[in-house]
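ASSEMBLY PREDICTION REQUEST
Request ID: AP-0331
Submitted by: J.K., bench scientist
Number of chains: two
Total residues: 422
Priority: normal
Notes: Please return the full assembly, not individual chains.
Input sequences:
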Amino acid sequence: MCLVKERILKSALNLFWRYGIKSVTMDDIARDLGISKRTIYQHFSDKEAILAQVIEEEITSQKCEMQKLDEIAANPIEQIIYASGQMRDTLANMNPTLLYDLKKYYPKAWELFQTYKKEHLIKNIQDNLTEGIKQGFYRPDIDVEIFSLLRIEQTVMAFDPTIFPVRNFNMMHIQMQFLLHFLRGILSEKGFEYYNTIKDKSAIEINIHEK
Amino acid sequence: MCLVKERILKSALNLFWRYGIKSVTMDDIARDLGISKRTIYQHFSDKEAILAQVIEEEITSQKCEMQKLDEIAANPIEQIIYASGQMRDTLANMNPTLLYDLKKYYPKAWELFQTYKKEHLIKNIQDNLTEGIKQGFYRPDIDVEIFSLLRIEQTVMAFDPTIFPVRNFNMMHIQMQFLLHFLRGILSEKGFEYYNTIKDKSAIEINIHEK
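STATUS: Completed
Returned structure:
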């Protein structure tokens, strides 16, 4: 990819992340880069075109991160704990309106995220659950399909300002509470014993105690 | 309330429960009762008027049931276990499209349910959580406000056919999995020990093992 295009995507990602999508204009991106709007239009037809590519690249990079974590995790519980660390990094400085903006105003870009959710995220959680049950860390009576959907939808729920108004709740705190609760709810006795030996390394616990 | 009016409400509740709201007509209610549509219109201006009153009565009766359970429950965990039994009864034979029908096609009636959710259900869960923490059955680090919202919203989520298509999932099974998971996720060690001594009485466990 040419350098200018890459810089535009990087600037847009950064601005969307901090201010949400709706409030960022092509002028803002041009100003941020110190280039003319005309230069931006040479590469992208409009803000939605930038947004689509920003999301595609973000998805690719998240997939990559998740794969790395899965490789270094010794077992499914560690995998979730590492994922909580990744989530912590992703959410830091993220404007909490981002996902809702996407759903409400940018249906095409939202679709990209939905496809990623269905084809990748849910599968990743299902694999974690199946493996955790197999290794005896999770309860054998949890329904993998139902809990993979619960996990993903509660992550999305935390972004919904009609349920968790931005001014009253801290997004990171909600997500960490959800993740820790989700994990504890699926653990078997063996899983609990193991979790208690490693929880001090966990970003979930760290976050909750920091609050 | 006069007898005819009561019979109309009872018939409508029964039909809505079994077939959802959208597909039930004034003709169906008249036919079910063996009375003329004219008689129904003497008491209710339209189906929405019947629906509103059906919901109000259902809410009153649920409040009453919840209060009874709260009185006989020895502690917050028993309260949740009894509530699972009540939920089991309520969901038996309930058309899973009911709640979504309400949200999509009957916004005024949906508002009644929303108000009940905000003013009564959430408070009831908050009280349970606060008391459970106080008595040492639940973890002290759970955020009562966040988890009362999670609990109520995951109950609603189970009714969402865009997440859990009716043909692929059994509503009761989802709800019992959610409830058991929610409870396990909030328990302290003391809570777990106690829960293990009484779980065989629990409708949640019974349902999961029956599946």
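REVIEWER COMMENTS: The CA atoms of residues 16 and 23 of chain A lie 8 Å apart.
SIGN-OFF: pending second reviewer
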